[in-house]
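Title: Request for sanity check on Large ribosomal subunit protein bL9 prediction

Description:
We are preparing a figure and want to confirm that the structure record we downloaded matches what your pipeline produces today. Could someone re-run it with the sequence below and paste the raw structure tokens into this thread? We only need the token string, no images.
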Amino acid sequence: MGTKIVLKKDVDTLGKAGTLVEVAAGYARNYLIPQGFAVRATPGLIKEAEQRQAKQREIQAKLRAEALETKKLLEGVGFYEVFVQVGEDGNQLFGTVTNQDVAEVIQSKTGVAIDRREIQIDEAIKRTGVYPVRVRVYQDVFATVRVQVNAAG
């Protein structure tokens, strides 16, 4: 049977600070408690940790709901147009369309700021046309937007 402890610091394998976890008695007694990573769970600490976790779940649910609204907004726009310099044939781009380019056009069209690292372009965009692009809005919420690449000028 394990020992219930409340983490005082983040522990990669167990969880974040304030989390109530159950671990092997020896692990708690010989490592976590002496190193200051945890304290033995008392009824008061258990109640406090449960309240904190409930509050955290509430916050996560609210953030996820907002993310679903943002996803709906992003996908509701028909195309996000990006204008770039092209070669003489009219299709081949000078360079590629980057995540930053997509983030800027999304922000200019919808007002939603998206971090460029949350944008996933499956294939390098080197020609004009329409491309599907995945945007991570929240932990497990992804929006698929269509990016129309056009010749500038």
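Thanks, this matches our download. The beta strands are 3-7, 20-23, 38-40, 80-84, 92-97, 119-120, 125-127, 129-138, 141-151.
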